[in-house]
From TrEMBL:
Biological process, per Gene Ontology: IMP biosynthetic process
InterPro entries given in the database record: Fumarase/histidase_N, Fumarate_lyase_CS, Fumarate_lyase_fam, Fumarate_lyase_N, L-Aspartase-like, PurB_bact, PurB_C
Keyword terms of this UniProt record: Lyase, Purine biosynthesis
Location of the Adenylosuccinate lyase PurB C-terminal domain: 329-449
Source organism of this protein record: Paramicrobacterium humi
Pathway: Purine metabolism; IMP biosynthesis via de novo pathway; 5-amino-1-(5-phospho-D-ribosyl)imidazole-4-carboxamide from 5-amino-1-(5-phospho-D-ribosyl)imidazole-4-carboxylate: step 2/2; Purine metabolism; AMP biosynthesis via de novo pathway; AMP from IMP: step 2/2
Name assigned to this protein: Adenylosuccinate lyase
Pfam families linked: ASL_C, Lyase_1
NCBIfam families: PRK09285.1 (NF006764)
Molecular function per GO: N6-(1,2-dicarboxyethyl)AMP AMP-lyase (fumarate-forming) activity
Residue span(s) of domain Fumarate lyase N-terminal: 14-308
Coiled-coil region(s): none
Length: 461
């Protein structure tokens, strides 16, 4: 058998690459290494600008040239790091050597020994992961998440008055509107959105076991707690003052739990949309050239929602594993988090792919209001709830002597299909006040939607 040329093992790097490319800017190995260079460079700039150990401040041109090492990080640096790591067998040490090489080319050998000064690898790594995850969430995942919420908001408004039969336990239940049901999902997703937007991204910068031991020997009079805090915060992160060798990853567990929660609400949306499509509530808009089945020409499959469902499950499983694994480290350090964190991009990639499919799926469906009305008209028995509730109110007000209204309506409707004429005859014979009777006689399943439309309007608040 002829060997294939090198192929991507993950579908995110193959079949679905175009949908998740932006994440690669941040959560790939190259994105991580660019962030590592950024942290190493900023530490050099901090040390020299504060004239630590007699170093003189860099000129503006030298500072700009140093920062260009990170902003201009590209394929030559990726290739050089691969060569260096083949020798060092250590990814962060390779980054340190790369920075030292760049310093030599820039004529900055005088500060070479400040490269990676008093740092353990995790001082660089934890800040780099916080920066890359923060950028990926804020610049890639959240915009797509907000876009899906925006699409759902539009549908909630458009379908606010579209009466539909509800189904509890899969059985006909008190009607609602399609807009209100979508609004429920919007409310859930927006609540999670606020939590994700409020996430903290923590960083530590305190040495081999987190207690500044080497720092205080090198510079006993320096305020290392202040220096650490200033440096971490200068990167736009929240300082974690008490850690072991590693930053404790609690912020990651919190964030991944929130993303997984969002995934599961979206999964609920995807399965509901699939069900509504199967019931004929939504028509799928055929896409030019698309094939639904290799043998059944009529089919338009709900593949967007099916794809989303599967990818949300994969993403949540990975995020759950990340959250559970990262918060534990044997004593001051073990290396399980190193391998684990390399899958952050995979977890976010499957979530982003699902969001893309949901957004596209929502654009490819159209509500069939006639199907909703036909279903309502076939289920007049759902008005039994309204009738027995009105009777109970009439009994309490002294306008009726009916005993056990619930049992009366249960006998009339449970497990039966009754129509408009049946209910009209039943209501006509009720011992209740005229005003209440007239309200019930005017009631139809499509009007029995309570405050559904007003509830949709609550999203505007």
């Amino acid at each position: 058998m002829t060997s294939l040329p090198p192929q991507p093992l993950s579908p995110l790097d193959g079949r679905y690459r175009t949908a998740v490319t932006e994440l690669g800017e941040h959560l790939s190995e190259a994105g991580l290494n660019r962030a590592r260079v950024h942290v190493e460079v900023e530490w050099l700039i901090y040390l020299t600008s504060h004239e630590m150990f007699g170093a003189s401040p860099l000129t503006d041109a030298e500072t700009a040239a140093l920062r260009e090492l990170a902003s201009g990080f590209g394929q030559p640096e990726i290739d050089r790091l691969a060569t260096l790591e083949a020798t060092t067998r250590h990814d962060v040490k390779a980054v340190e050597y790369l920075v030292r090489e760049k310093l030599a080319k820039l004529g900055l050998d005088r500060i070479a020994e400040l490269t990676h000064f008093a740092c353990t690898s995790e001082d660089i790594n934890n800040l780099s992961y916080a920066l890359t995850v923060s950028d990926a969430v804020r610049n890639v995942w959240l915009p797509k998440y907000r876009s899906v919420i925006g699409a759902l908001r539009s549908l909630a408004d458009e379908y606010a008055d579209a009466s539909m039969l509800s189904h509890t336990h899969g059985q006909p239940a008190t009607p609602s509107t399609m807009g209100r049901e979508i609004a429920v999902t919007v409310y859930r997703l927006e609540r999670i959105l606020r939590h994700v937007e409020g996430s903290e991204y923590l960083g530590k910068f305190s040495g081999a076991t987190g207690n500044f031991a080497a720092h205080t020997v090198a510079a006993p009079d320096a305020d290392w707690l202040r220096i650490s805090r200033e440096f971490v915060e200068s990167l736009g992160l929240t300082w974690n003052p008490l850690t072991t060798q590693i930053e404790s990853h609690d912020w990651q567990a919190e964030l991944y739990g929130r993303i997984a929660h969002a995934n599961r609400v979206l999964h609920n949306l995807a399965t509901d949309m699939w069900t509504y499509i199967s019931m004929g509530y939504f028509r799928q808009i055929p896409q030019a050239g698309a094939t639904g089945s290799s043998t059944m020409p009529h089919k338009v499959n709900p593949i967007r929602f099916e794809n989303a469902e599967a990818n949300l499950e994969i993403s949540s499983a990975l995020l759950d594993s990340l959250a559970a694994t990262l918060v534990t480290s044997r004593m001051q350090r073990d290396l399980t988090d190193s391998t684990t964190q390399r899958n952050i991009g995979v977890a976010f990639g499957h979530s982003l792919l699902a969001l893309d499919n949901i957004e596209r799926g929502l654009r490819e469906v159209d509500l069939d209001r006639s199907a909703l009305l036909a279903d309502l008209d076939a289920n007049w028995e759902v008005l039994g709830e309204a009738i027995q509730t009105v009777i109970r109110a009439e009994v309490t007000a002294g306008r009726s002597q009916i005993s056990d209204p619930y049992a009366m309506l249960k006998e009339l409707t449970r497990g039966k299909r009754i129509g408009h004429a049946d209910l009209t005859a039943f209501v006509d014979g009720l011992d209740i006040g005229d005003a209440a009777k007239q309200r019930l006689l005017q009631l139809t399943p499509d009007r029995y939607v309570g405050l559904s439309m007003q509830q949709v309007a609550l999203l505007a608040d």
